[in-house]
Amino acid sequence: MRIRPMRPDDVEAAERLTALAFETERAADHRRRWCRQIAHVIDTDPGGCWVADDDGGTDVVGVAVSMRRDLLWLLSTYAVHPGQQGRGIGQALLDAAIGYGAGCLRGMLTSRPHYGALRRYRRAGFSLHPTMCLHGTVDRSALPVVDGVRAGTAADLDLVDSVDRRVRGATHRPDNALQMEFGTLLVCDVLTGSGYAYLMPWGVAPLAATNRAVAQRLLWAALARVEPGRPIDVRNLTSGQEWAIDVGLAAGLRLGQDAYLALRHMRPPEPYIPSVSFG
Ligand SMILES: CC(C)(COP(=O)(O)OP(=O)(O)OC[C@H]1O[C@@H](n2cnc3c(N)ncnc32)[C@H](O)[C@@H]1OP(=O)(O)O)[C@@H](O)C(=O)NCCC(=O)NCCS
């Protein structure tokens, strides 16, 4: 078994491997998006992306994709083939990815509730914050009139950066173009505060704002733009995100348990909805 840097031609094998390890079959458009995202991180952070393969270099049996955004280290995906788990491959991959974050003060990732993953993250010094999710279709009769939120463009990215720096201490600068390609950027910039949200095909994330009232406006505005009848998810909500839970419940979404937000040397950002791929 060998741990080596991930190459663009490993992306499809990594997609298959993660689908197996996460016990999920992605639909074709989701698979394309997933592959684009991973190829993007290989491009921006080649030193943060690692695979485990057999010595012949053909079969990818493990993957860890991580990035640095300012002084924040983020883990985007992490999996080992189900038949090879529990033998230390995950530890070696995570060590390589965390090594790439040397010098970063803080770390963030969204974790699945998997025994081996939680063991690895806690033993790497991450604090595990349980999370909730909102799921369902929006009750359109509950939608309030929301002022001050508009569709954003590339001209708003300085504002997005400023809000990100303040709320989570690091921007999503290299990732915004891709997120704007997959979803709709919404921006709120009023006298009382500023914020942004991405409405993605599956739900709302990331979202950040300088105060809860602006965050609530953005979430309502995003929910109003969801195609009627289409189910959506608002995930990775730590207990501090009650502003989001209140909006979701008022909009008729169902609240349930999600997994964990794993953080190192930082408190859960707030008001904030993290993205699974980009933190
Ligand atoms: C999380 C994951 C990548 C770790 O890879 P791995 O090769 O299993 O990791 P390791 O063998 O280095 O570590 C797993 C730890 O859990 C323990 N463990 C015990 N039972 C286990 C089991 N049934 N499966 C996996 N690990 C088990 C191992 O002993 C080990 O702990 P230790 O080294 O402190 O003794 C892998 O288990 C996986 O792909 N899980 C499913 C997908 C997932 O949840 N990924 C994380 C997304 S956030």
Q: In percent, how much strand structure appears in the residues?
A: 25-35%
CATH class of the largest domain: Alpha Beta
Broad shape: globular
SSE succession? EHHEEEHEHEEHHEEEHEHEE
- In the sheet with the most strands, the strands line up as 1-2-3-4-5-12-6-11
Q: What oligomerization state is this entry in? A: single chain
**Could you give a short account of the major beta sheet?**
8 strands, mixed
Low-confidence stretches: none
Bound molecules: coenzyme A
The number of distinct structural domains comes to 2
Report, as a whole number of angstroms, the end-to-end distance.
30 Å
Question: Do you know the CATH topology of the largest domain?
Answer: Aminopeptidase
Number of strands: 13
Radius of gyration: 19 Å
Mean pLDDT: 97
Helix content bin: 25-40%
Class derived from helix and strand content: alpha+beta
Number of helices: 8
CATH architecture of the largest domain: 3-Layer(aba) Sandwich
